[in-house]
Write a sequence for this structure.
């Protein structure tokens, strides 16, 4: 996962001068905002959070946006608005009630950005944002599901919720690479192993292929807790 | 043939429709918020619906290779129910969202004072948020409804070239065209327009500023009517460029007035587009809108 500094550099590198100036203004606004409990309407930075998608764009090149692959930093053109929103939330030092409100009032893209921001915010140590993650895991929007199973979920989801999340990823085609820290949490988890085995049998009985990622998680559930890593990071 | 359906209610349609639309050439659409058939009784029902038009439905469309944008508003029918009118106060929170490319559909249903108030208030909201407006014309008493609509538009802060007047027909097209508004036509199996009459209107009035939509919803309607109009235009001697103007470039130009249109097409489509307009038009023309920062 990129640090906030690396993320900002990666975003700015992809923007033209107008986009960089907009982002700089938005982050300055967010960083200097004060709590305003009695003010009507949303704060300036919250409007920037909402409208980031139309301000932070890859400059038009005449090439199709979808043809651009993510760079070495893992950030693709379609990730730019998400990244800008993460930076705005970080600059605003958004707390748990604020992210809960923005999530509740958010579009799909805004909700995704809130979920992606969680590991970068001060609230990361507490479990207050777990209801947002659980809400996203109830949806069938795979972009939300993938954003929900990041480092915050790895740290805070209960064993039952986390197992259900892993199974949902396999079920809906969200790649295992989206599930943060899965090796640590799956290691020696016999109940997860049982669920995965049952799912594989159900697929086989229906004549359908078993997701390739399933075997990797299943193998990890059979590893002894605390035993040496069964897979290196490069292999996973 | 690339097609942009500028008015279709996908919430009421199936994945089979999405697949058939893609196969017919539909690559982009706009879903206006509207009456769901069953009256709503609380503002919260609207907010869940708006959230769906900004969350789940664009995801569903993207899975079928179609770009989804929406227009949001309190529709005229439910503007008559005082339990629903608080939606007007909450709309500004939604009108800043990236996926919203117009205020709509607004206009008249029964031409009541409550509808007058909602229409005027929402035209002002459009002007305040740098958005164009999708204004439908009533199903009953249509010509009188059009005249009253154009009067309210004329009194509003929104110039006519930022207004799309929809559900037009032979009786209303001339006055709508003279007003300087964009011209929308809904092609239906039984009511509103059909393909043959649509082509006759295009021949009589020209393709400039004309948008053709299916307005497909939960009633008897057909999401492929846009393609059928395009096919008939070609059969009746219109050029490919004229078909492209009506079925793609006009909707892109109108909703592009928002500055919020994002059309990420696959490589072949975008290459074809680039030969017409260059890539920038896909994202919409920079809006003559209030500066947002």
């Amino acid at each position: 996962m990129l640090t906030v500094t690396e993320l900002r550099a990666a975003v700015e590198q992809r923007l033209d001068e107008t986009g960089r100036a907009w982002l700089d203004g938005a982050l300055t606004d967010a960083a200097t905002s004060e709590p305003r409990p009695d003010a009507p309407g949303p704060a300036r930075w919250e409007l920037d959070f909402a409208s980031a998608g139309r301000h932070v764009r890859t400059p038009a090149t005449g090439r199709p946006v979808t043809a651009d692959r993510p760079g070495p930093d893992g950030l693709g053109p379609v990730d730019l608005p998400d990244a800008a929103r993460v930076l705005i939330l970080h600059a605003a030092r958004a707390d748990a009630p604020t992210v809960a409100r923005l999530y509740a009032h958010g579009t799909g893209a805004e909700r995704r950005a809130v979920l992606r921001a969680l590991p970068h915010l001060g609230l990361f140590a507490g479990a207050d944002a777990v209801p947002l993650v659980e809400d996203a895991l109830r949806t069938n929007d795979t972009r939300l599901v993938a954003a929900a199973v990041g480092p915050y979920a790895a740290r805070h989801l209960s064993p039952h919720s986390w197992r259900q999340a892993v199974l949902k990823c396999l079920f809906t085609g969200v790649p295992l690479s989206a599930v943060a820290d899965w090796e640590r949490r799956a290691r020696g988890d016999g109940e997860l192993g049982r669920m995965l085995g049952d799912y594989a049998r159900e697929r086989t009985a229906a004549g359908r292929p078993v997701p390739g990622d399933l075997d990797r998680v299943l193998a990890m559930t059979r590893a002894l807790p605390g035993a040496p890593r069964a897979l290196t990071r490069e292999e996973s | 043939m690339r097609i942009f359906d500028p008015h279709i209610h996908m919430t009421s349609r199936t994945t089979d429709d999405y697949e058939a639309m893609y196969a017919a050439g539909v690559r982009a659409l706009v879903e206006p918020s509207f009456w769901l058939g069953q009256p709503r009784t609380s503002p919260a029902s609207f907010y869940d619906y708006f959230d769906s038009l900004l969350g789940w439905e664009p995801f569903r469309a993207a899975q079928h290779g179609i770009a989804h944008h929406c227009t949001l508003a309190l529709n005229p029918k439910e503007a008559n129910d005082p339990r629903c009118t608080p939606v007007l106060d909450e709309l500004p929170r939604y009108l800043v969202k990236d996926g919203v490319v117009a205020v709509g559909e607004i206009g008249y249903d029964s031409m009541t004072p409550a509808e007058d108030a909602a229409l005027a208030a929402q035209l002002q909201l459009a002007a305040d948020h740098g958005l164009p407006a999708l204004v439908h014309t009533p199903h009953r008493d249509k010509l009188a409804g059009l005249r009253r609509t154009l009067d309210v538009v004329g009194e509003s802060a929104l110039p006519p070239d930022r207004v799309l007047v929809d559900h037009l027909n032979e009786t209303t097209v001339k006055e709508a065209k003279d007003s300087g508004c964009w011209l929308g036509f809904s092609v239906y199996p039984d009511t509103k327009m059909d393909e043959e009459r649509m082509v006759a209107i295009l021949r009589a009035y020209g393709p400039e500023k004309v948008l053709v939509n299916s307005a497909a919803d939960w009633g008897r309607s057909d999401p492929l009517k846009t393609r059928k109009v395009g096919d008939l235009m070609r059969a009746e001697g219109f050029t490919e460029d004229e078909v492209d103007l009506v079925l793609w470039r006009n909707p892109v130009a109108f909703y592009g007035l928002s500055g919020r249109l994002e059309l990420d097409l696959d490589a072949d489509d975008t290459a074809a587009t680039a030969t017409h307009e260059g890539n920038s038009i896909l994202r919409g023309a920079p809006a003559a809108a209030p500066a947002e920062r």
